[in-house]
Write a structure and sequence with these properties.
The complex is a heterodimer of chains A (117) and B (110).
Chain A (H helix, E strand, L loop, with lengths): L3 E4 L2 E4 L5 E7 L6 E7 L5 E8 L5 E2 L8 E7 L2 E6 L8 E8 L8 E3 L3 E5 L1
Parallel strand pairs in A: 2-11
Antiparallel strand pairs in A: 1-3, 3-8, 4-5, 4-9, 5-6, 7-8, 9-10, 9-11
Chain B lengths: L3 E2 L4 E5 L4 E7 L6 E7 L5 E8 L4 E4 L2 E6 L4 E6 L8 E9 L2 E4 L3 E6 L1
């Protein structure tokens, strides 16, 4: 149990376009979902935390107008990278939690590789 | 601000060796400590989760310990196999966040 999927697994887009990444909890309802970004040889960096039905909380330095997060249901959160640029190329990973905040284990998706040309 | 350190960045061992991967964190006020495995280009696989009230967790050949007061956790891998080759990340849970280390890339030689 506790499976999280992401779609697409990889995407290549032109600079200036927008890309949407979906994160789904397949067999449980996720009150909280998290979005991370990982650059090569680097650690995962938390971008934002989203709770179902409310606005996402963004980490310092993450542009909320560039990285739009929607958590419309207990099983789906989306991350939209707007007006993507080559420096946005990265590995984006989501996670989902059964309960509120960090008290419950986070289950991670397989990640989405974004390449912006 | 929580900082998580994993040293060394890379490790190469012969098959069959028992090994210990270290993780240190600066803020001892954590809720839990997780160890993950990441294969190249892939997502994270959760290995072990230790709640702050626990001292260790075991799963198969893996054993993770937690010493909050000293800000350390270790992942013990018994009888290593080539299939254990991957990057191992630890993450400290505190203040509603998981803070990750950069990981240790393990290579187990046949």
């Amino acid at each position: 149990g506790a499976v999280v999927s992401q779609h697409p697994s990889w995407v290549i887009c032109k600079s200036g376009t927008s890309v949407k990444i979906e994160c789904r909890s397949l067999d449980f309802q996720a009150t909280t979902m998290f979005w991370y970004r990982q650059f090569p040889k680097q650690s995962l960096m938390l971008m934002a935390t989203s709770n179902e039905g409310s606005k996402a909380t963004y980490e310092q330095g993450v542009e909320k107008d560039k990285f739009l997060i929607n958590h419309a249901s207990l099983t789906l959160s989306t991350l939209t990278v707007t007006s993507a640029h080559p420096e946005d190329s990265s590995f984006y990973i989501c996670s989902a939690s059964l309960g509120q905040g960090i008290y419950n284990e986070q289950f991670f998706g397989p990640g989405t590789r974004l390449t912006v040309l | 601000k929580q900082e998580v350190t994993q040293i060394p960045a890379a490790l190469s061992v012969p098959e069959g060796e028992n090994l210990v991967l270290n993780c240190s964190f600066t803020d001892s006020a954590i809720y839990n400590l997780q160890w993950f495995r990441q294969d190249p280009g892939k997502g994270l696989t959760s290995l072990l989760l230790i709640q702050s009230s626990q001292r260790e967790q075991t799963s198969g050949r893996l054993n993770a310990s937690l010493d909050k007061s000293s800000g350390r956790s270790t992942l013990y891998i018994a009888a290593s196999q080539p299939g254990d080759s991957a990057t191992y990340l630890c993450a400290a849970g505190a203040n509603s966040k998981l803070t990750f280390g950069k990981g240790i890339t393990l290579s187990v030689r046949p």
